[in-house]
From TrEMBL:
Pfam families: ExbD. It comes from the Bacteria. It is found in: Cell membrane. The keyword Transport applies. GO terms for cellular component: plasma membrane. It comes from Marinobacter nauticus (strain ATCC 700491 / DSM 11845 / VT8). This is Biopolymer transport protein ExbD/TolR. Keywords: Cell membrane, Membrane, Protein transport, Transmembrane, Transmembrane helix, Transport. GO terms for molecular function: transmembrane transporter activity. GO terms for biological process: protein transport. InterPro entries: ExbD (IPR003400). It is a single-pass membrane protein; Single-pass type II membrane protein. Belongs to the ExbD/TolR family.
Amino acid sequence: MRRKHRRLQSEADLDITPFMNLMIVLVPVLLLNMVFAHTSVLELNFPTGESLSAEQAEELQIQVVIYEDRLVVADNQGGVIKNIPQREGEYDFVLLKDVMKEIKSRVPDKKDVIIMPSRQTSYQSLVSVMDTVRSYEAVVAGSVVEAELFPEISLGDAPVPTSGSAEVSS
C-alpha cells in the first residue's frame, strides 16, 4: 500500500518594508514635480492664404502691430486707433491694456484680435502683448478675477512702415 505524503505547505511572508519606504519617498517627490510640470497651451489662428469672402472683409478686424519703437492699435475700417510709443525703452503695456478695454467696451461681442509683430520683435515682447490683449484683472464681488478682452489671437506679419507714417494695411 502506498502512503500519501502530504507536503507541508507554508505561506511565505512578504516583507513590504522596502516597498513602503519607496512609496513614502516617491509620492511626495512626484506631487512636488507636478506643480513644475504645468504647461499652458494657447490656441492661435494662422493665416491660411485663402482669400477673404466679402462678409469677412467687411467685419471689424482689430490689429495690434509691434514695431521696434512703438505699438500701433488699428482696425481695418477706421485705420489707426492709437499709436503707443515706448516709454524708457520698454513697451507701454498698461496703456495698451487701457486701449483694449476701451475697444472692448465699444464692441463687447468681438473676441478676436490680430497681432502683427515685426521681424525684430523679441519673443518676450510678443508673449507680453498676447497676454495683455487676452485678459485683464478685474475685481468682482471683492475678489480678483480674469476678465476677458480678446482671447482669440491670430498672428500675421507687420507691414513695413512707410516714411514717418503709422498706417496699417488691412
